[in-house]
Design a protein that fits this description.
- Helix content is 24%, strand content 30%.
- It has 3 domains: 180 residues, 3-Layer(bba) Sandwich (FAD/NAD(P)-binding domain); 123 residues, FAD/NAD(P)-binding domain (3-Layer(bba) Sandwich); 79 residues, FAD/NAD-linked reductase, C-terminal dimerisation domain (Enolase-like, domain 1).
- Strands 1, 2, 3, 4, 5, 6 and 18 form a 7-stranded mixed sheet that branches. A 5-stranded parallel sheet has the order 8-15-9-10-11, covered by helices on one side.
- It is α/β, with parallel strands linked by helices and 410 residues long.
- The protein is globular.
- Helix 1 runs parallel beside helix 7.
- It is built from 10 helices and 25 strands.
- Bound molecules: flavin-adenine dinucleotide.
- Flavin-adenine dinucleotide (FAD) binds next to helix 1, helix 7 and strand 21.
């Protein structure tokens, strides 16, 4: 049986950055193997709903490491290969192709899978989910032929794909079950800004609506809504969220709640088994709660962190929740967690879109949304204040005339 010092199950973003870190920690040739269900090397997914979806030539940010990187460091990547089962007691991973591999230390990085929306006739042609590069290619190809599209969901996949399809010349209708866009973080004012933006670009946004059924003979031709309305369409994208990809471990001794439970060292309850990225929940030392993240920054950071711990650098993982998104010419970054906020302060102008939003609980900053037009310093300060649990005076945030450097706290 083939033996590796380190095995990673999953070949996504976490795996790609973990591999980079393993190489930086100077692991030996032939010590690391990545088992990946995909037909592409570990990649960054954000471009799949942004630049790459618009234009297949915009592919230079897709791969985390080129093929030469894996060759140079003697890292084996088994693509189009599923880990079928793991025998923790014997430290063995069984592959779908019949082979078995032995590890000393295992990193689970199986990520997320899409949540199916429970809409009838979902199997009709030209109804898409978006998680991998092939789906992004198929959506682009269809969008080039389509006149109109229905996007189900008003989260980041829904908003980003609506914007791209609109830019490709497709007439887009976005169906949003909530009463606002980006409801996971947006206040009414922020949602209104984005709705105005989409409507200005001629994207129809239907709030408080749900898709209940798709119609068509072979390919989708109509979407039926809860209100009874029927929308003719040439294609549909469903963006209704994701869930941790834990099915491989359902009947194992691994502790799993919503995701695989790890401590601040990415350790699971099973000796020498680590996990990181979208698939885990971990103790958040800044907000003192158990956190599950489905965003790139955590996959990047925690993948590297797990590799450091596994190669002997034993430090706790401290992470300021963070994600970014782009729609049309607007990019934004979100830091922290506004869940227990009791106040919000805006800087700049919500009308023009040049604004930032700062969520507070009394004098502690919990979260901030920073539009890309804002001074870079705002994002840096937000991250720093959240991480340090700094005392922040609301009036200072209010005072937009004040130089940002004067906002700096000791
Ligand atoms: C279209 C799209 C756009 C995004 N845009 C943004 C963005 O703008 N900003 C942001 O912050 N985040 C964004 N994200 C989220 C971000 O990409 C994820 O958080 C990140 O990919 C998580 O990395 P991961 O490695 O944990 O999981 P994944 O990248 O999902 O990788 C998991 C891998 O494990 C494989 N796998 C699972 N089970 C097995 C098995 N049994 N055997 C072998 N392989 C297996 C899967 O096939 C997959 O390749 C986006 C995601 C998508 C899909």
């Amino acid at each position: 049986m083939k033996k590796y010092k380190y095995i990673i199950i999953g070949g996504g973003t976490t795996a790609g950055y973990a591999a980079k870190e393993f190489a930086e920690q100077n692991i030996g040739n032939g010590e690391l193997c990545i088992i990946s269900a995909e037909d592409i090397l570990p990649m960054n997914r954000p471009p799949l709903s942004k630049n790459y979806l618009k234009d297949e030539n915009e592919d230079d940010e897709l791969l985390i490491n080129g093929k030469e990187f894996y060759d140079d460091h003697g890292i084996t990547v088994l693509t189009e290969t599923y880990a079928k089962s793991v025998k923790f007691a014997e430290k063995i991973v069984e592959l779908d192709r019949g082979e078995a591999l032995q590890y000393e230390k295992l990193l689970i990085a199986t990520g997320s899978q899409v949540k199916h929306a429970n809409i009838s006739n979902e199997n009709l042609k030209n109804i898409f989910y978006l998680r991998n590069v092939n789906q992004s290619d198929e959506i682009r190809k269809r969008a080039k032929e389509a006149q109109n599209a229905v996007i189900v969901g008003g989260g980041y996949i829904g908003t980003e794909t609506s914007a791209v399809l609109n830019q490709l010349g497709v007439q887009v209708t976005m169906i949003v079950p909530e009463d606002k866009l980006l409801s996971k973080f947006a206040t009414d004012e922020i949602s209104d800004f984005f709705i105005r933006k989409f409507r200005k670009e001629m994207v129809e946004v239907l709030l408080g609506e749900e898709a209940v059924s798709f119609h068509g003979k072979d390919s989708v031709t109509e979407v039926e809504l809860l209100s009874g309305k029927r929308l003719p369409t040439d294609m549909v994208i469903i963006g209704t969220g994701v869930q941790p990809n834990i099915k491989l471990f359902k009947d194992s001794t691994l502790t799993i709640n919503h995701g695989i439970v790890v401590n601040e060292f990415c350790e699971t309850n099973v000796p020498d088994v680590f996990a990181a990225g979208d698939v885990v929940e971990f103790p958040d030392r800044i907000f003192n709660k158990i956190r599950h993240v489905e965003h790139w920054e955590n996959a990047f950071d925690q993948g590297r962190h797990a590799a450091q711990v596994m190669t002997g650098k034993y430090e706790p993982y401290i992470f300021v929740p963070f994600f970014f998104s782009d729609v049309f010419d607007v990019s934004y970054e979100y830091y922290g967690d506004s869940e227990s906020a009791n106040d919000i302060v805006y800087r700049g102008s919500l009308q023009s879109g040049d604004f930032s939003a700062w969520w507070l609980n009394n004098d502690r900053l919990l979260a901030a949304l920073i539009m890309s037009t804002r001074p870079k310093k705002e994002g840096e300060l937000a991250a720093k204040w959240i991480r340090n649990k700094a005392k922040v005076e609301k009036e200072k945030i209010y005072n937009t005339a004040e130089e940002l450097k004067e906002l700096e706290l000791n």
